[in-house]
Each structure stands twice: as structure tokens, then as C-alpha cells.
């Protein structure tokens, strides 16, 4: 089964994330609106073939139960974390991930989706994001260094396999927005920042284990199996912000196994049982978060069939 187009390729330079609750919008009207959205996306791809236009549409657990009679094994809602730091959960019905080399194309597709339904849905977030310098977070450190780079590895990490039956080619999605306290962050000297992250700032070289603190960001976000092999996730996170307003990161990851995200968050927020939390949380704040399922292209066409 073919994955939705944004999931496996390397990220484009611009993205827009739409997080929506249906409220007054019926399932039938949602399907019609998404049909218009895909039609406009395909028109833009034909008109601008070199702009890397890609999308994914994912659904929260409650809405998915209305769209389809069964769910992939392990699909659930995100659990909040209450440890050294708190992590809220903000459930939503639909997450739309739009990516392109041009921010105006991302905007145009967002505009198409919302056209005529603005008063019927609750928009929890519409976040315009961008590639920052050479792929860095606003902290100045390169983001996504541990991402699998080869296509086979990305597929193995993100997509449900043949054993998932009709859900093969789909992917679970974790989306969460972080607000950065950059004034506080910039008061740290570079070597202190590197201790927080666990990498060098310029070259993004991981610090040796004997000097990397156990509460460094990369030490807390790495999850391993019983044999010590890292259990990867596929990140598409990008920064967002205005020069004078909120600035931060829209974290989004695709995975075949939500327990990897569960374990990562427990290690970050200090609820894993070892009494350690991610030191980066002293400088960034999670303001929402939720789980979704992005079905394969084939299954998406089935569940959105207007004749149903």
C-alpha cells in the first residue's frame, strides 16, 4: 500500500499544519471538503511540478471510529504526562500536513480546505513552519540528526507492514507544539547549551558518553529495545514563529509503533521511573499534543468515498 505523499520523502522547506475539530461539520461535508482539497493539490502539482508539493491527512481515534469499523492495533489517544514537567493533551479530529518548497502554495492549500467551512469547525492550530538555516531548530542546533536517511529505513520506521492487513502503508502520527524561551536559552554559553542538547552546536557531533549528561536531550529521547538497538521514529519537525511573538517548534513524527513515542515522552518528562527528565524542558514548553492515524492512499480513498 502506498503511503501518503508527505511521509517518506525528506522534508520540504515549508510546511503548514492544520489541527481541527469538526464541531458543526458533518462527516459527509468533511469528505466533500477533502475532495476539493485533493483536487486543488493535484492541480497545483501539475502547475508547479518542481515545488515538492506533498500532503498527509490523519485522523484522531474518535473520528477514525466513525470513518471505519476497525482500527489498527495500538491506535489510541496520547496520555498526558505529569512529572518533573507537565505535558498536556489536546485531542483533535483531523491533522493535515502540507509541505512544499513555497510557503504560498502551503497557504493556498490551507485556504482551499477552510473555504466555506470556517464557521463549522474549531481550528485548534494553523501553524506555518519553515526550514531554518541548514536544518536547525531555533535553539541553533541541527534538528532530526538521528532521522533514518535511506528510503527503505524510513519506510521500515514509519509505516505499518503487511502484517497490519488493510492498514499496511499507514502510519501513526504524533504532533505537538513547543514554545521556546529563547531569551533564557541565549543566556547560556555555547558549551552549556551543548551539555543540554548532548551534541556540539556547530557540527552536530554527539558528545562522548563520558561527558554527555544523563539528562541531555538526546540521551532522554533515544529509546532502545532489549538488545540495545535504537527504536527510531521519522521526524518532520520544523520551526515556526514571528520575530516579536511566540517562537518554537512544531514537532511531528511518523511511526509504526506508538509505544516508541510513549516511552520517549516518559523519559523526557520524568515519568519513566528513573527520576530523570530532559533538561531541555527548562527552556521549551509543550503546549499541546495528540495521536493520529494517517491511512495509506488506498484506504484513505476508501474511507472518504462520498458514495458510502
Task: Give a short summary of the structure.
With 308 residues, the protein is α+β, with helices and mostly antiparallel strands. The protein contains 9 helices and 12 strands.
Features:
single chain, 308 residues, alpha+beta, 4-stranded antiparallel beta sheet, 12 strands, 22% strand
Tell me what the structure shows.
The protein contains 9 helices and 12 strands. It is globular, with a radius of gyration of 19 Å. It has one domain (14-303). The chain has 308 residues and is of the alpha+beta class. Strands 7, 8, 9, 10, 11 and 12 form a 6-stranded antiparallel beta sheet that branches. Strands 2-5-1-6 form a 4-stranded antiparallel beta sheet. A two-stranded antiparallel sheet has the order 3-4. The model has no long low-confidence stretch (mean pLDDT 96). The longest helix has 21 residues, at 27-47.
Amino acid at each position: 500500500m502506498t503511503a501518503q505523499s508527505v511521509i517518506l520523502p525528506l522534508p520540504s522547506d515549508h510546511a503548514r499544519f492544520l489541527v481541527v475539530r469538526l464541531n458543526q461539520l458533518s462527516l459527509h461535508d468533511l469528505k466533500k471538503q477533502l475532495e476539493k482539497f485533493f483536487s486543488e493539490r493535484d492541480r497545483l502539482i501539475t502547475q508547479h511540478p518542481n515545488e515538492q508539493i506533498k500532503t498527509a491527512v490523519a485522523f484522531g481515534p474518535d473520528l477514525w471510529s466513525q470513518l471505519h469499523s476497525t482500527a489498527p492495533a495500538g491506535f489510541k489517544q496520547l496520555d498526558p504526562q505529569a512529572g518533573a514537567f507537565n505535558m498536556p493533551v489536546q485531542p483533535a479530529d483531523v491533522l493535515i500536513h502540507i509541505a512544499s518548497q513555497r510557503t504560498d502554495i502551503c497557504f493556498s492549500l490551507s485556504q482551499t480546505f477552510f473555504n466555506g467551512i470556517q464557521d463549522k469547525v474549531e481550528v485548534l492550530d494553523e501553524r506555518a513552519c519553515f526550514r531554518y538555516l541548514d536544518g536547525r531548530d531555533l535553539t541553533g542546533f541541527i534538528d532530526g540528526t538521528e532521522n533514518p536517511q535511506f528510503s527503505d529505513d524510513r519506510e521500515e520506521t514509519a509505516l505499518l507492514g503487511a502484517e497490519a492487513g488493510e492498514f499496511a502503508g499507514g502510519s501513526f502520527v504524533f504532533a505537538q507544539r513547543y514554545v521556546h524561551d529563547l531569551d533564557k536559552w541565549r543566556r547560556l554559553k555555547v558549551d552549556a547549551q551543548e551539555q543540554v542538547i548532548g551534541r556540539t552546536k556547530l557540527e552536530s557531533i554527539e558528545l562522548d558518553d563520558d561527558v554527555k549528561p544523563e539528562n541531555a536531550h538526546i540521551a532522554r529521547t533515544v529509546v532502545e529495545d532489549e538488545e540495545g538497538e535504537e527504536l527510531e521514529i521519522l521526524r518532520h519537525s520544523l520551526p515556526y514563529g514571528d520575530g516579536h511573538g511566540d517562537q518554537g517548534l512544531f514537532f511531528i513524527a511518523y511511526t509504526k509503533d506508538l509505544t516508541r513515542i510513549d516511552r520517549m515522552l516518559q523519559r523526557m518528562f520524568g515519568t519513566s521511573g528513573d527520576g530523570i527528565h530532559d533538561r531541555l524542558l527548562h527552556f521549551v514548553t509543550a503546549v499541546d499534543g495528540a495521536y493520529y492515524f494517517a491511512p495509506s492512499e488506498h484506504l484513505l480513498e476508501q474511507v472518504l468515498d462520498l458514495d458510502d
